[in-house]
Amino acid sequence: MEKKRWRILFEGRVQGVGFRFTTQRKARLLGVKGWVRNLPDGKVELEAEGREEELNNLILSLKETFAGLISSYTVKEEVYEGEFNDFQIRF
Q1: Of 26, 44, 58, 68, which has the fewest CB atoms closer than 10 Å, so is most exposed?
Q2: CB neighbours of 26 closer than 8 A, spacing ≥ 6?
Q3: Active site annotation includes 38
Q4: Could you state, in order of their start, the residue ranges of all structural domains in the chain?
Q5: 70-78 and 44-51: which strand pairing?
Q6: Active-site residue among 5, 7, 13, 20?
């Protein structure tokens, strides 16, 4: 199956609630590679690579876990590069 690369921005109360650590754990369980980081404006940014089903499952799982805290999110598809070996938290 073709792999994809998505840049995902989450908005809401997504900082200070364990969002990055939970994202890393869930991404690793799903086989998604990439990174997650907090942004100065209060959003959380992900750069994620994997099969579309894995990426969708990651988003669904985060929406379920952080229900009521995520106010919105956007997904931008980018060119798959296959550059990641793991899923990391960036500081």
Answers
A1: 68
A2: 58, 61, 62, 65
A3: yes
A4: 3-82
A5: unpaired
A6: 20
**Arithmetic mean of pLDDT, 15-19:** 98
Structural element, H or E, at residue 22: helix 19-30
Amino acid at 56: N
Q: Pick the catalytic residue: 7, 37, 38, 56?
A: 38
Residues 6+ apart with CB under 8 A from 17: 66, 69
**CA dist., res. 78 & res. 65, Å (int):** 26
Contact predicate 11/71, CB 8 Å? yes
CATH topology of domain 3-82: Alpha-Beta Plaits (3.30.70)
Average pLDDT of the segment spanning 5-30 = 98
